[in-house]
Amino acid sequence: MASSGFHTHDHVKCVAEALGALESYCQTEGLKFTTLRRRVFELLLEEHKAMGAYDILDRLRTEGFSAQPPVAYRHLDFLVAHGFAHKIERLNAFIACTHIGALHDPAFLICRECRTVSETMSDSSILALHHRASDADFQIEESVVEAIGTCPDCR
Q1: How many domains does the chain have?
Q2: How far apart are CA 113 and CA 115, in angstroms?
Q3: CATH number, domain containing residue 83
Q4: Cβ atoms 49, 115 nearer than 8 A
Q5: Crossing angle for the helix pair 53-62 and 69-81, nearest 10 degrees?
Q6: What's the whole-model pTM score?
Q7: First CA to last CA across the chain, in angstroms?
Q8: pLDDT single digits (tens) 90-134
Q9: Cβ–Cβ under 8 Å, residues 151 and 116
């Protein structure tokens, strides 16, 4: 068992299910699931912590991949565009989505000490925001809810 966000879970099962969902999605949509896309996603899944693009590049280089910044960003953009990863704006970093396949507006609980990120579903506050935007004839394309604090392990 490992920690997902701030809770213990079966990490082997977590990784297998997420990779299976990504493989299935790519096959259904006719997208290439390259070795590098897979590895970037695996890196994001490893610890459920936010990783910057340069952290990912460093890991890829140590594993023998010849990776330049555009390569990492291209693969991260693919994962984010298809809902398999999220960008944590506050940290300028990325995490793997923990609600793959679910239509959702995520909210992120971010530990400022260890950078562990727990993804949760946002609630009525986002719904209220969408209603207010609709009343103003404004179409929201993206909203990000991030809360900074300390996790149980760092407290």
Answers
A1: 1
A2: 6
A3: 1.10.10.10
A4: yes
A5: 120
A6: 0.80
A7: 21
A8: 889 999 987 776 667 788 899 988 888 888 877 767 778 888 999
A9: yes
Range of the domain at 66: 2-149
**What does the alpha-carbon distance between residue 82 and residue 80 come to, in Å, rounded to a whole number?**
5
| Three-state SS at 7 | strand
Q: What does the buried/exposed string (b/e) look like for 131-147 if buried means 16 or more CB atoms within 10 Å of the residue's CB?
A: eeeeeeeeeeeeeeeee
**Residue 52, class by beta-carbon neighbours within 10 Å (0-12 exposed, 13-18 middle, 19+ buried)?**
middle
Angle 123-117-149 (CA atoms, 0-180°, nearest 5)?
80
Assigned domain for 155 exists: no
Condensed to tens digits (0 to 9), the pLDDT of residues 77-90 reads: 999 998 889 999 88
Taking phi first (over 0 means left), then psi (-120 to 50 degrees means alpha), and beta for anything else, what does residue 61 get?
A: alpha
User: And the tokens for 113?
Assistant: 């000490």
